[in-house]
Amino acid sequence: MIPGGGQPNMQALLQQAQKMQQDLAAAQQELAETTVEGSAGGGLVRATVTGAGELRGLVIDPKAVDPDDTETLADLVVAAVHHANESAQKLQQDKLGPLAQGLGGMPGLPF
Prior knowledge:
- By secondary structure, the protein is an alpha+beta fold.
- It has a domain at 34-92: Nucleoid-associated protein YbaB-like domain (Ybab, Chain: A, 2-Layer Sandwich), CATH 3.30.1310.10.
- It contains 2 helices and 3 strands.
- The protein has a 3-stranded antiparallel beta sheet with strand order 1-2-3.
- Binds to DNA and alters its conformation. May be involved in regulation of gene expression, nucleoid organization and DNA protection.
- One of its GO terms (molecular function) is DNA binding.
C-alpha cells in the first residue's frame, strides 16, 4: 500500500524495476571491464584485478625474489592480491551501492 491508502501503479513499478535491472547489469559489466591495482613491499609486488574481483595480472620485481626466502615473497603476493581485492570491493560499493539504495525508493514495496 502507498501511504494515503492508494494502490501502487503496477505498470510504473514494473518499469522502474526493469530500469533498475538494466542499470545493475550495466554496472556489473563496467565492473568486469574495469581494473584496479594493489601492491605490497613498496611496489615490489603488484596485483591487478577487475572490479568484479578477478585476478588479471601479477608483477613481481626481481628484487623481491630471494630463493632462500620464498615465504616473504608469498606473503607479498598475498598482500598485493588482498590490497587489489579491497580496491575492487570499494569500486563495487561505489558502483552498486546507489542502485541498491534505489530499491528502498520504490513506492509500494516493503524495503
